[in-house]
Amino acid sequence: MDRKILKVEKRISADPTKLFRAWLNAKDFSLWFLSGEGIGIESVTMDPRPGGRFLINMELDGKILPHSGEYITIDEPHKLVFTWRSHATENRDTLVTVTFEEEKDSKHETKKSSKQKTTTLVTLIHEDLSSDLQIKMHNHGWTSILDSLSHWMESILE
């Protein structure tokens, strides 16, 4: 079977450590991990350590859609690797790698100082997807999730 790979990137105005930690704190995670219109989070449980597991129960039209996996690599604040299993992967394990690369924006200047603003390039690579439909569904979901992370981060940093 031909395995497919999806890559989604988003520049977010926050430092890598804050963004990285947002992925491993169940309370914060449930506030921003929104994969699309009408989809909510019913519950999140996490054991954020290599070999630890997570369960994200998304809710859509009154139905609970479980998403689960196991943490493989937790390299704060650079890289997070975990398996991902859901109805959208046909309940098969796939692999997700999220990297956080700090970028300095020297163009952001205030009248009093030339303070640099930190942005982070968040890159998400989802491997072992089995069809173009899975790529399309996950592209939409992961893009919405990274957009939600960006908006949530803006709201807490104001």
UniProtKB/TrEMBL annotation:
Residues 14-152 form the Activator of Hsp90 ATPase homologue 1/2-like C-terminal domain. Belongs to the AHA1 family. This is SRPBCC domain-containing protein. It comes from Leptospira kanakyensis.
